[in-house]
Amino acid sequence: MRKIRTNLINPVSADQTELFKDYIISIEDTVITEISPFKPDITEPYEDRRNEVAIPGLIDIHVHLSQYRMRGSYRPALLPWLEECVFPEEERSSQRQYAYSVSKDFYPALFRAGTTSAVIYTAPYREACEAAFEIAEDLGARAWIGMTLMDRNSPEGLQQTTDYAVEHSMELYWKYHDKTPLLDYIFTPRFAPTCSEELMRRISDFAIENQAWIQTHLSENRDEIRWVKELFGYHSYTELYQAMGLLTDHTIMAHCIHLSDKEINILRDSGASIAHCPDSNFYLKSGEIDLPGLISQDVKLALGSDVGAGTSLSMLYHAKLMNYRQTAFPVSPELAFYSTTLGAAKLLHRDKELGSLNVGKQADICFLKLDDDLGEQVLPIDEDFLGKLVFFGSELPVQETVIAGRSVYQAPSSR
Ligand code: GUN
Ligand code: ZN
Predict the structure, then answer these.
(1) Ligand (nearest to CA of 78)
(2) Where are the domain boundaries for CATH 3.20.20.140 in the chain?
């Protein structure tokens, strides 16, 4: 049992956030058991952390673990970047040792950034995916993890046979889906150009039957879209995925920048969600997502870092970029914060347990330091606090990250 005297900031909806100054938050086992105003007559011992703010553990709904070490390897567009930077790096994870060492770097980096849940791509090797699960379990991460699938148009060292891709995905699903409460498997066809119709159909048949998670990339780059048209000939990229059975309410589609109105409607009606990755979209000059259009059509959407095209694991940095990467649409701090907390949890069908700090929910918490090293209060908890959190929160030191009640990171100064 822990009792912590601190401040809290809590998303309520896409346009409402609550602020609680000087509260007690109690954690028992994996769960939050109390959130109440601090009372001076308290008799139990508590941690005094009034110089911090507790926020819900951040959620990254699209990140490539096996690309963690190649962030910043620059090429001017998606397809040359994949060919010249990503594929050679992912091929390194065919070596067991390398795959383990990337996983051992990756999760602590997530925790240092205050991220408590992540939806993860690995590489097209079963062993690399197993390494990601094993290290996640050891370190206490909450994650949805998938083996990347690619059975055509891929370099020799990466390309799988269709049977390898399907059979190992299913075995990984059965091995990890129910193994621990914190981890799940997600089927991960890389994107249409590297997947055969047979692969996509076999994956979606299984996923639909088992209500399993699916993730892929959709409509990120104009050359990619042209290539999909040449390869498959469907009227649109979204209609191809629809015909393959990949659009379900357990599907996360990364990017979705260049969708027509018809595609937006298909996506919304299917219940699939979008992982919006603003940093990556501008890094690769992929384009500007139509946020107002997608929001007005009620498409579900949350934020992903898309590391390694994304350059940072800090979801507060990506929350800021959600605003900065819109030329004219003023994304509110409430919406940006919601998109990496409660909105992301909702999209994952886990908003009853995750995404905000409430009694009965999982204790997934990030504590940020508000004062400087001399103990001066640098950031007052006032009505402007949320804007400050979104626009420069990535500069605030993460003091501690807690997942399901377990402390997975403590800043060196606080240990
Ligand atoms: N499309 C297919 N693979 C990838 C990838 O690894 N990163 C991004 N940003 N887009 C992709
Ligand atoms: Zn991606």
Answers:
(1) 1
(2) 58-313
The ligand 1 atom at the shortest distance from the C-alpha of residue 67 is: 6
Query: Could you tell me the two tokens for 309?
Result: 């095209």
Helix, strand, coil percentages, rounded to 5, for the chain: 40, 25, 35
Fold that domain 2-56+356-414 belongs to in CATH: Urease, subunit C; domain 1 (2.30.40)
Q: Does 191 sit in the ligand 1 pocket, CB within 6 Å?
A: yes
Domain with CATH 2.30.40.10 in the chain: 2-56+356-414
Q: Is the CB of 309 inside a 6 Å radius of any atom of ligand 1?
A: yes
pTM reported for the whole predicted model: 0.98
In tens, the pLDDT along 74-91 reads 999 999 999 999 999 999
Tell me, what DSSP letter sits at residue 393? Answer: G
Dump the DSSP string for 143-175.
EEEE-EE--SSS-TTTPPPHHHHHHHHHHHHHH
Indicate the burial class of 181 (C-beta count within 10 angstroms; 0-12, 13-18, 19 or more).
exposed
Q: Which fold has domain 58-313?
A: TIM Barrel (3.20.20)
Token pair in block for residue 363: 């204790």
What is the C-alpha radius of gyration for the chain, rounded to an integer number of angstroms?
Answer: 21
pLDDT, tens only, 108-166: 999 999 999 999 999 999 999 999 999 999 999 999 999 999 999 999 999 999 999 99
Whether residue 306 has its Cβ less than 6 Å from ligand 1: yes
Choosing from 64, 67, 191 the residue with most ligand 1 atoms within 8 A of its CB, the one to mutate for a pocket test is: 191
Which protein residue's CA is at the shortest distance from atom 7 of ligand 1? 309
